[in-house]
Amino acid sequence: MRFTSNINEDDLLSPAVKESVGAWAEDVTDDSRFADTYKAYEKSIRLKIGIIVGLVIVAFLAAIYSIQSGPLVGGMIETISILWQALIGTADPSDSTVHWTMYATAPVLGCLFGGAGLAICGAIMQSVLRNPMADPYTTGISSGASFGAAIAIASGSVLLSFPGLTVVLAFMFSMIPVAVILLITKISNGSPITIVMTGIGIMYVFNALTSIIRLVAGGTAMSALDNWLMGDAQLVGWDDLPVMVIVTVAGIILSMYLASRINVLSTGDENAKAMGINADRLRIICLIITAVVSAGIISFTGLIGFVGLVCPHIVRMFTGADNRYLIPASAAFGSVLMVVAHMIGKLVIAPTLVPVGIIMACVGGPVFIWLVIRKNSSAW
Amino acid sequence: MTTIEIKNVDFGYDEEHIVLHDINLDIRDPGLYCVIGPNGVGKSTLAKCVSKIVNPLNGEVLLNGQNIKEMSHRQVAEVVGYVPAFSQDVFSMSVVDTIMIGRHNHRRWGSRKKDMEVVYKAMKIMRIMNLAQRKFNELSAGQHQKVSIARGLVQETEVLILDEPTANLDVKFQVYVMELLRGVAEQLGIIILTICHDLNVTAKYAHKVIMLERPGKIFAFGTPEEVLTADNIERVYGIKCQVVEEEMYKVPLVILGEPIMNDEIDGI
Predict the structure, then answer these.
(1) How far is CA B79 from CA A264, A351, B2, B40, B46, in A?
(2) Quick check: A276 and B72 CB within 8 A?
């Protein structure tokens, strides 16, 4: 009797266990408790999707409100109709309201897509590095990108005459922090603290280098650089939008495609490998996505912090840590945050425009501190 | 029928610190296999070699006759499930979602209800239905363990490896989980490999016992009666003991005596 492999003949097993194991083969679809569990699960998913849809709607409404809040444009309805006409190509560019509406729209779209892009970068990096402090800013990716962009901007017409060079340089230099992060993750098993400490180190180095460029550049290049360094969505023009839109949309689609794999990776490398995921490769892919997206945004808006860091944390409180919902919800919330920050910047000491980066830092700083103090938060 | 063959496997995290030496194992029958041995002897490492989490320096691991070196992580994962000793998620999801992660390789478009059925059954078997909507990180260590085992069960693989599944569990659940694993192995005809520290639970429920000795070698492989003898335990663990036959179930019962301290081995 001792070495039977037939569960029914195994006298070592208690009836409770035999019943449990037997239940494994049973059909539970008619079980009312299963129906309740499944219903609750479906409901939680619908709630998450509802949050995403709601945030997207709020983002667009905030964007339209922001456009029509500026000078020389019409009201909400008129703005919507002008934007619609512009979209289908029947707007009259010689009309002054149309002209000013379109002028006000570019920076707002910059905020809409820039906020979304930076927020997904934060969400992806936090999950992939299993680090609540990770975002393009704290890991030095933003500083690397801004150094690259600064080279192009400071050169004035020399390099700027090549379209796209700013972005390419920004991307190239943003890969340096990515490489360093990957290296320390590999060597020292990258504890959250090591990664952020290294990121801060990289940030100082690149910021210093950017300052040197600023000093060397002098004159008009210097003031152009200063404007850009403050993180100003107002700099975004219609020519810049295609790159921003493409990198952001591509980033969102790709990261949502990878989201369920990122979920597994966020439970640990060993677990991910055991679940059939090439952990190292997925991490590299994700970090390259974040580098491309942040470079594609920062090149035009300048350094904007806190969106990437704070958005995912706030969203996680409502959608939970599942990246399939966290990523799109963060994107939408990032848009809302940036559009609103830009709008506040336009209105707070009008007619002077406060750059969105400064508003973000003013608002983001306290929120960040609040998040740090709230250590026992279930979102971490 | 699933087979695991481990041939001449050496493993070290670097060349100077070899953890496993010339491991040879041939596992062909379904059942519950318990890996026992002192701390730091390489039990977890052996488990990781089989699930391709780490790659051996020398030798090969064959899964159904195929070298896992030539298989992708995904291909290995479809055959071998693995539950780590301890997992703490930085951003924790609900218990349902955490267990659902175990369905990663089964998930298809529109398979949510099917996946949920399996998750539900696993929660029911592990007696954690009441925790379904709780956050993983809010749970106690023992509840964590139950969720992790459930996450292993829902993978529905032909081989399931669990690293210390009974750690942190109270006595009732230690026994329940080991019984359950034995029962699951018998019912589904799969190979379950667990790392265990409790010799008596191992003696009662393991079909086969793999005993490792320092420095990372297989000392014995066989039935509990064959492996769990007083001499073997004294030599491998360095503790005096008596092994008698337990009256009710006729399984070996280990009564531990005094430890034999050895400064060199115990690290003084």
Answers:
(1) 17, 66, 9, 27, 17
(2) yes
| Distance (Å) from the alpha carbon of B240 to chain A's nearest alpha carbon | 27
**Cβ density class B208-247: b for 16+ within 10 Å, e for less:** bbbbbbbebbbbbbeebbebbbbebbeebbebebebeeee
pTM, two decimals, is 0.88
Segments forming the whole domain that contains residue A115: 50-373
Q: What is the pLDDT of residue A3?
A: 55
Give chain B's mean pLDDT: 89
Q: Per the CB < 8 Å rule, is B107 touching A260?
A: yes
Put simply, the answer to whether A270 touches B30 (Cβ < 8 Å) is no
Please tell me the total count of domains within chain B: 1
CA distance A23 to chain B (A): 7
User: Which of A20-29, A186-195, A198-207, B179-188 is the least confident region?
Assistant: A186-195
- Shortest CA distance from B44: residue in chain A: A270
Using 50, 70 and 90 to split pLDDT, how confident is the model at A301?
A: confident
> Is residue A292 a part of any domain in this protein?
yes
Q: Is B130 on the interface with A (CB under 8 A)?
A: no
Neighboring chain A residues of B108 at a CB cutoff of 8 Å:
none
**CB contact, 8 Å: B146 with chain A?**
no
Task: List the domain range (segments joined by +) for residue B118.
Answer: 4-266
Number of folded domains that form chain A: 1
> Residue range B20-41: average pLDDT?
91
In this prediction, residue A373 carries a pLDDT of 76
CATH code (residue B215): 3.40.50.300
The ipTM is 0.86
Residue A133: CATH number of its domain? 1.10.3470.10
